[in-house]
Amino acid sequence: MQRCDVLIVGGGAAGLFCALRLADLGVSNYLLLERNDRVGKKLSATGNGQANVSNIHMGPEHYFSQTEAPQLAKILGDFDEKCLAEYFASLGGILISDDVGRVYPASRQASSVTDLFRFALGGGDVFRLGEKVLSAERRQNGFVVRSEKEEYVARALVLACGGKASPHFGADGGGYALAKAFGHTVTPLAPAIVRLKTEPAAIRGLKGIRCDCNVVLVRPGKPGGKDSVFANTLTRGDVLFTENGVSGDAAFRLSSRVREGDELAINFLPGTAAEKVARLLAAKAERYPRMRAEDLLRGIVHSAVGRAALRRCNISPEERAEKIGAKLAQLAHSLTWYTLPVTGTDGFANAQVTRGGVPLSELNDCLMSRKTAGLFFAGEILDVDGECGGYNLQWAFSSAAAAAKGVAEWL
Q1: Residue 198 class from Cβ within 10 Å (0-12 exposed, 13-18 middle, 19+ buried)?
Q2: Which contiguous run of DSSP H or E holds residue 295?
């Protein structure tokens, strides 16, 4: 049996950062349990290996929760993207932002973030690797935590176990069972920042095509047309067509809110209204009456997108412009309001984060349980997920900082 003041379960972004902040606050007697053979396995692969750790446009409006989360703004504000940049510099690293506000290490290597954290923690003395936690309970002398290898006793316990997304990095959702054992609830779980599956016919011929688009989320059953658009879901970014659906920044940003039966409405000409496109097509058809319908769209959209729009309007690619006539308005509408029925997602196996988790309403401002004193939470295990663009890693760091402060004060 091993004893310590603080036991951190999970060696991902939140667990590592919690350990760093504990050390800064003078708490030295802590251990970190990680089920993998090394810490930061998922962190080292995040952002396509480049580590999009934050965003300069930080704020609670970029996050989702299924329950009330009154502490969210305070936690993000107490340790924001500026604090992260300063802290990163104190460890000997540099953070930079791109033209849309995404923040990366200057090295553009996610593994370098993990390495800086490991160096700052002094190597492996505080890590217990290959330790899958089986159970945790509160006793009079503290928390008793059992792994497959050992039994631990600690005065305070931090659950930073992650969620269910990306199981190939060791995530299996086991932390939710530990939380429930202490009387906590877990909101419904779903994959987020994940590829969306769509009806095959709607994307035929588009595989491998990447477009800069405006995309909104539509839920049938509300009044038709644009009245059924979800509030605040308009986003602009890449849409990458795959064999069975769509990927890319725009799809990822909406994946937290989409459900089966919804539709994505794509404008392949961002900022351009259908009426303007219709006038342009009519003028072009008048100038080139013998032009093929497929060629009518040259210089306007990608040829594969043009063929898909023509199919949707039942226009043959070989049809002459002079014979399209009234269908030009329909074609323009298809290019600016191309709907894709969503049939599902690629699941947790290919998701970057988990939607749902332990509600913040069951915790105090330092993320300590209102049900069990000395029990803290941080990171993806909580019912908070952010948009694509560095928001989820910032939440991991901000929530870990809050939990560490709470632990130090509670001890």
Answers
A1: buried
A2: helix 293-296
